[in-house]
């Protein structure tokens, strides 16, 4: 499959295997929350600069970056997405340390081709995927507009190639009531917590009339300070998700209607906002995914699950709306090990996890080379993108 580059490419990645391990380990041992990943961002910038990449900062996003390296010949522009934020309290229990290591490895290997490289390789440092996904802002700023393909590999508990994700919006509802002594003068108060409880009850009833792909889940952020005082302020946060953005927005309006109903019922004044950026649904480019799958098999990996529907959300969905994209998962843990768990955290720091980062780097690089050297393949990828994303 890789007559011109196959013999060359794998030894390049094998030669930097220890460097890929180092990136994975350093980010794992120093977990940083979204938009605070200063150590991880600095490490990746320094590492990729050594391979001749020109690194630029992104205004307003201090831990994001764009690292570019042009080949001697014109050709496709391929983006590898690096994520490196951790989860609160639980560190890299989603394996973003491995995502960063794999994307770095793929970009570095292609950059090492030097004059043999046709096109341009871009390593995109994308912070805060777990919260206020930076890819949303990068898309809005047109960062991906001139790119031909974007890709990354996510660690998981099974290997799936044709992944999808749910569109999502993050809503915060605040109710303002009136404090009063809960025993002496409850009739003088307006209970903001009652409004939040009614909101939860309304959403629970709403779920019966929603499509199976819809998800609504929330927490109470504020609910009062002592039982002896009627709460004058209560705050709840929800994620609203669905398979397609259009339906997700319909569900969002129904949730807002529930919130307004609770306002009318209690008299507590309602305000609401998006407390994080919303994510579009992920559209996998199947032509690209098939090439990735073939390359994975070429490297001797065959434990691959059939296509499945994604039930999480990612800001890679926003990228997939503007450039042909893939977001496959490769297993670092057994199927009964859930992401965002202590068991998955252990897997993200394991030898198996680091070996998967190297494997992912190889498959990403091989897939990118296919796109860069086969005009008909790129044409087919773009035709599918126009048909499935631009003309739904």
UniProtKB/TrEMBL annotation:
Domain Peptidase M20 dimerisation: 172-260
Domain of life: Bacteria
InterPro entries, per database record: Amidohydrolase, Bact_exopeptidase_dim_dom, Peptidase_M20, Peptidase_M20/M20A_hydrolases, Peptidase_M20_dimer, Xaa-Arg_dipeptidase
Sample GO molecular function, one term: para-aminobenzoyl-glutamate hydrolase activity
GO BP, sorted A to Z: folic acid catabolic process
A GO CC term attached to the entry: cytoplasm
A Pfam family annotated for this UniProt entry: Peptidase_M20
Family note: Belongs to the peptidase M20A family.
Designated name of the protein: Peptidase M20 domain-containing protein 2
Annotated source species: Thermoanaerobacter italicus (strain DSM 9252 / Ab9)
């Amino acid at each position: 499959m890789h007559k011109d580059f196959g013999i060359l490419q794998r030894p390049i990645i094998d030669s930097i295997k220890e460097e890929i391990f180092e990136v994975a380990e350093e980010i794992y041992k120093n977990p940083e929350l979204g938009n605070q990943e200063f150590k991880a961002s600095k490490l990746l910038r320094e590492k990729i600069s050594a391979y001749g990449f020109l690194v630029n900062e992104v205004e307003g996003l201090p831990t994001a970056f764009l690292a570019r390296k042009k080949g001697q010949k014109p050709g496709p522009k391929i983006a590898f997405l690096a994520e490196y934020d951790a989860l609160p309290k639980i560190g890299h229990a989603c394996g973003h340390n491995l995502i960063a290591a794999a994307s770095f490895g793929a970009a570095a290997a292609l950059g090492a081709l030097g004059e043999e490289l046709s096109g341009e390789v871009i390593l995109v440092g994308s912070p805060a995927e777990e919260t206020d996904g930076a890819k949303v802002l990068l898309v809005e700023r047109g960062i991906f507009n001139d790119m031909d393909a974007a890709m990354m590999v996510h660690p998981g508990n099974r290997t799936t190639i044709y992944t999808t994700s749910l569109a999502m919006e993050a809503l915060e509802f605040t109710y303002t009531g009136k404090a009063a002594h809960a025993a002496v003068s409850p009739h003088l108060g307006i209970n903001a917590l009652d409004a939040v409880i009614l909101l939860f009850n309304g959403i629970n009833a709403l779920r019966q009339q929603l499509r199976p792909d819809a998800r609504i889940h929330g927490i109470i952020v504020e609910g009062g300070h002592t039982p002896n005082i009627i709460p004058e302020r209560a705050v709840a946060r929800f994620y609203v998700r669905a398979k397609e953005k259009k339906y997700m927005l319909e569900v969002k309006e129904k949730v807002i209607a529930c919130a307004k109903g609770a306002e009318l019922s209690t008299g507590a004044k309602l305000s609401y906002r998006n407390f994080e950026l919303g994510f579009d649904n992920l559209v996998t480019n199947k032509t690209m995914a098939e090439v990735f799958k073939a390359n994975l098999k070429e490297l001797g990996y065959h434990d691959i699950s059939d296509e499945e529907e994604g039930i999480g959300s990612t800001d890679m969905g926003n990228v997939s709306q503007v450039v042909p994209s893939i977001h496959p998962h490769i297993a670092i843990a057994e199927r009964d090990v859930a992401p965002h768990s202590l068991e998955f955290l252990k897997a993200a720091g394991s030898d198996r996890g680091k070996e998967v980062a190297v494997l992912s780097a190889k498959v990403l690089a091989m897939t990118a080379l296919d796109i860069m050297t086969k005009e008909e393949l790129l044409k087919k990828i773009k035709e599918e993108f126009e048909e499935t994303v631009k003309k739904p």
